[in-house]
């Protein structure tokens, strides 16, 4: 694989996503930006869900807390798996080694973080770049 700025005849992750025309290229860049911003939305939603669930767990009685903790861990694991799968798809887009698509991933991440990232200074401690 070689880094390139050439967009013609670029295959993006799937056989059916093959860029052959300029409008197809523009659509693909916009789609990657939106897809990446969607990943940031998912991360934000999962973080808010976790905070809400922790509040519910802290108010649960001792007898119901064990079941609630298991349910929480199961759901958290499913959400984590979804995030990892999503981030791997983004990684595959990045691994096309196409400079335009790489920029689209970065722009989508920045846009998503701007729209759905927390404005609290300490919230970024829990949000890392491990799956970007």
Automatic annotation (TrEMBL):
It holds the Pfam family Ctr. It is found in: Membrane. It is a multi-pass membrane protein. It comes from the Eukaryota. Keywords: Copper, Copper transport, Ion transport, Membrane, Transmembrane, Transmembrane helix, Transport. The chain crosses the membrane at residues 22-42, 77-94, 100-117. GO terms for molecular function: copper ion transmembrane transporter activity. One of its GO terms (cellular component) is fungal-type vacuole membrane. Belongs to the copper transporter (Ctr) (TC 1.A.56) family. SLC31A subfamily. This is Copper transport protein. It comes from Scheffersomyces stipitis (strain ATCC 58785 / CBS 6054 / NBRC 10063 / NRRL Y-11545). The gene is CTR2.
């Amino acid at each position: 694989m070689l880094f390139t700025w050439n967009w013609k005849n670029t295959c993006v992750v799937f056989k059916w996503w093959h860029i052959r025309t300029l409008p197809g290229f523009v659509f693909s860049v916009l789609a990657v930006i939106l897809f990446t911003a969607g990943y940031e939305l998912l991360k934000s939603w999962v973080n808010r869900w976790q905070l809400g669930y922790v509040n519910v767990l802290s108010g649960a009685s001792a007898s119901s807390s064990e079941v609630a903790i298991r349910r929480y861990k199961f759901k958290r694991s499913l959400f984590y798996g979804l995030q990892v799968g999503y981030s791997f798809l983004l990684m595959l887009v990045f691994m096309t080694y196409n400079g335009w698509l790489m920029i689209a991933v970065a722009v989508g991440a920045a846009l998503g973080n701007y729209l759905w990232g927390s404005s609290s200074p300490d919230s970024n401690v829990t949000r890392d770049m491990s799956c970007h």
